[in-house]
Specification:
- By secondary structure, this protein is mainly α.
- Helix content is 59%, strand content 2%.
């Protein structure tokens, strides 16, 4: 609706400009001219201060200002664009607009990578505890056997490689979130804020995470 109204107003404006331009025959110059020299009355700055004097004699050379019409060119007549065509044009124009910065254009770096992983692992751990706690509460009503003894017996029956892989996957987010939480506590004390220190502590957290997760996965398997 807005597209049709805009095109209608544009066509009406162009017709009015063409009608006014054709109905009058403008002179080749403005009805007045500016003299190159001011009159003798303007020689005294104490008189007529702040005023411009255009009085000139017949022998004073004049500058003819060229006439410039209101419209420099004819505007082609507009036509009514259907609503669906107007929306299609706007959608194509939006596709050509620049896109806001996103993750795919940034170089992978330790600071923002660990920052994202800290939030992801925190959500996974807290969400997992909430889901397991709710399932444990409703398990007697649904007949589920997820008590500790049943879970330990089911886990013991798995192959050794599968048990080690599951323990590693469970330990990985827990150890990373724990070590990175200590890193944030160090930042809260006002230390290790330099760029090199942030990168160095990030690699330390990654190393401790992998080593501790492997140790927990192998222990008791």
């Amino acid at each position: 609706m807005n597209v049709q109204r805009f095109t209608h107003l544009s066509a009406r404006r162009s017709r009015l400009l063409e009608r006014n331009h054709s109905s009058r025959n403008p002179p080749p110059s403005l009805p007045f001219a500016i003299p190159l020299q001011q009159s003798a009355h303007a020689a005294n700055p104490s008189r007529n201060r702040g005023q411009m004097n255009f009085h000139h004699s017949p022998n004073t050379p004049l500058i003819k200002l060229p006439h410039r019409p209101a419209a420099t060119g004819s505007i082609p007549p507009s036509y009514k664009v259907p609503l669906h065509d107007g929306n299609a044009i706007l959608n194509r124009q939006r596709l050509n607009r620049p896109v806001s910065p996103h993750l795919t254009i940034y170089q992978t770096q330790i600071p923002w990578t660990l920052s994202a992983l800290n939030r992801i692992t925190g959500s996974v751990l807290s969400g997992g505890f909430y889901v397991f706690g709710f399932a444990y509460l409703v398990s007697p009503l649904l007949g589920w056997h997820i008590e500790s003894a049943a879970l330990a017996q089911s886990f013991a029956e798995l192959p050794t490689l599968v048990k080690g892989g599951l323990k590693f996957l469970v330990a990985l987010p827990f150890t990373f979130h724990s070590f990175n939480g200590v890193r944030h506590l160090i930042w809260d004390s006002g230390r290790e804020f330099a760029n090199k220190s942030v990168v160095r502590t990030g690699w330390v957290v990654m190393g401790l995470t992998v080593v501790s997760s492997l140790g927990l996965a192998v222990y008791g398997t």
